[in-house]
Amino acid sequence: MNFRDRCEVYEVAEKMQIISEVMRNRYGMEIRRCCASCKYRKITNDGRMCSKIDYEVASWQYCSQWEMHPKLQNAGEGNGKVKSLDYLNYHREKYLQQREDYYESKILATQIMSTEQIRKEYTEQKGSIYINI
Predict the structure, then answer these.
(1) How many whole angstroms separate alpha carbon 40 and alpha carbon 77?
(2) 104 phi and psi, to 5 degrees?
(3) Distance CA 95, CA 67 (A)
(4) How would you label 90-112 residue by residue, b for 16+ Cβ within 10 Å and e otherwise?
(5) What percent of the residues of the chain are helix, what percent strand, and what percent coil, each to the nearest 5?
(6) Would you call 24 helix, strand, or coil by DSSP?
(7) Which of 76, 85, 88, 131 could form a disulfide linkage to 27, CB 3.0–4.6 angstroms apart?
């Protein structure tokens, strides 16, 4: 990074806001505008970095480069559906068993089921993955 770029990084970092504001995503969920919810957040062994300006930041800060993380843009898409504890336990056990089988060379990486495949297997055996509220 040359001197000019470094100066621009510090200029942006100095402009980082301390007080965050709340935004709404397309499903009406409130998302706090901060580094933790930013598309450019990068977690490293040294801490939280902004991949856009390559500068260490605190989770509560944000700058003019802030964009909502794609996963947070879709928060609330399930319209309040809650997955059953039985399904979550089933998924966890299936996932852990597959990883164990893979590490013990009982199965190949290509044989590991995706979340969609596990969900489909569960619904075929037990029905809906959601609880009735």
Answers:
(1) 22
(2) -90, 10
(3) 32
(4) bbeebeeebeeeeeeeebeeeee
(5) 40, 20, 40
(6) strand
(7) 76
